[in-house]
Amino acid sequence: MKLVVVGAGAAGTASAWAASSRADVIVLCDRDGDTALAGGALLTGGADDVPLSFSETAAVTEFFEKLNYWRLQPDRVVSDTGMLLACAGLTDWQLPASRFDALQEGATVGVVAWGTNESESRLLARALREQLAAQGLHFEAIAIAGAGRWADTPSADIAGYLDTAPGFAELEAGLKTQCEKLAAALFPPVLGVAENLGTFLEKSLSLPCGEWAGALRSTAGHRFASRRDALFQAVGVEMRGDRAESLARTADGWKIEFRGGGSLLADRIVLACGGLASGGIRLGSSAETLSGAPAASLSWKAPGDVVLDGTHVSSTGAASGLDLSHLGLDALQRIGLQADRAGGLRAPGLFGAGALLAGRPRTLLEAVVSGLAAGSAAITHV
Ligand SMILES: Cc1cc2nc3c(=O)[nH]c(=O)nc-3n(C[C@H](O)[C@H](O)[C@H](O)COP(=O)(O)OP(=O)(O)OC[C@H]3O[C@@H](n4cnc5c(N)ncnc54)[C@H](O)[C@@H]3O)c2cc1C
After folding, report:
1. pLDDT on residue 284
2. 120: domain range?
3. Number of domains in the chain
4. Is 80 in the pocket of ligand 1 (CB under 6 A)?
5. Percentage of the chain lying above the pLDDT 90 cut
6. Is 296 touching ligand 1 by the criterion CB < 6 Å?
């Protein structure tokens, strides 16, 4: 069986992996989406807990083991504004806030300025001090000799340098001069792309070391991409840097055409092309609807009506459009394609996953859970 997955973010990666043992899988990836922008922690969207069924938890754990990037372990993570955010899991690079619990009252945690400037680290240290006042911990901004030259450099570039032998030696030597007074060190997302340098530092300096979660300028997207590519190679999934332009039914399957020319035939399709933020769904012109409010549709030609809270808002339906002044901006987070629990869309052999789907939380974990469900359903359902 041949399966084509459109999109290589968290949802597309999980779908491709779930189907890879029983299908020839090709993944199409146009460019980076939300997964590349995310800070990496598996946020719960404010909830204390994410209810997963036993089988979902088992499937996610197995996928995470193979991907070797996330761990499913509820905790809290420090955000780049110094907030402690509930999460269902973190990447190996991030320092779980539960590790602060093991520190003695009065202990000092260094908030390292490296690529961030010292005033940012001072603000972050103050925010953490206030939030963890009950634990009596002291958070202090730490400047490391030489690190100032990286101010305003993208964190991924710094992480790439620290991955090299001279880079790591500089990091280790710089921290060593400070570490006597520290009980733990908290870094921006610079602790390597290929390697998790936090574990090396922790071993050599006997000091808990890890990162806070930073979005947008972060290295998390690069790390995810390198682990995804390694996983695809290990399980024989092919990835193509093509943009799907149209999807149409054939007598016994589907035909995808590419923007740059060429096409592919497939038995099953998983759409994991992201939501409004990453351009999987687009807002169209108000001229497309009867009400004069803008319509929403997939950003390329494929079957599927876009819905919001169960109502069609695409130009192909009896569309009322999206009146955001009435609905509020939150509506943009709920809009998407209607799918059943396994991601089945209203066409045979067509499935959806991730931020493309209507009414599901916009989180990495949801993208993974729905991706695993769609990939498994695609190789079992007729
Ligand atoms: C700035 C930002 C920060 C976030 N931070 C967090 C966080 O820290 N933790 C968290 O849990 N959640 C976070 N989220 C939400 C989370 O990142 C998303 O819900 C999740 O990544 C969605 O994954 P996805 O695979 O569905 O979509 P995406 O990651 O957007 O992937 C879609 C992919 O499809 C490709 N594609 C689209 N159309 C086509 C086409 N026609 N042909 C070929 N390819 C195509 C895109 O190029 C893209 O690669 C954040 C979101 C944003 C926007």
Report:
1. 75
2. 95-212
3. 2
4. no
5. 71
6. no
Residues 99 and 62 in one domain: no
DSSP output for 232-289 = HHHHT-EEE---EEEEEE-SSSEEEEETTS-EEEESEEEE----TTTTSEEE--GGGS
| Ligand 1 pocket, residue 361 CB under 6 Å | no
User: What average pLDDT does the chain have?
Assistant: 90
Place of tokens 């908030």: 111
Q: Are 9 and 274 in contact (CB under 8 A)?
A: yes
pLDDT at 300 over 90: yes
Residue 286 lies in a domain: no
- Which residue's C-alpha comes closest to atom 4 of ligand 1? 38
Q: Which of 212, 230, 258 is the last residue of a domain?
A: 212
Please check the confidence at residue 103 and state whether its pLDDT lies above 90: yes
Measured in residues, the chain has a length of: 382
Is the same domain home to 374 and 349? Answer: yes
Q: Residue 154: inside a domain, yes or no?
A: yes
Residues 188 and 117 in one domain: yes
Residues 34 and 166 in one domain: no
Does ligand 1 have an atom closer than 6 angstroms to the CB of 35? yes
* Predicted pLDDT of residue 162: 95
Measured from the CB, is residue 89 less than 6 Å from ligand 1?
A: no
Same domain, 251 and 227: yes
How far, in Å, from the CA of 115 to the mean position of ligand 1? Answer: 25
Q: Is the CB of 278 under 6 A from ligand 1?
A: yes
Instruction: For residue range 36-83, list pLDDT tens digits in order.
Output: 989 899 999 777 778 899 999 999 999 999 999 999 999 999 998 899
Q: For ligand 1, atom 53, which residue shows the shortest CA distance? A: 34
Tokens of 173: 């030597």
Which ligand 1 atom is the nearest neighbour of the CA of 28? 43
- Check residues 11 and 54 and name the one with the higher pLDDT: 11
Cα–Cα dist 207/175, whole Å? 10
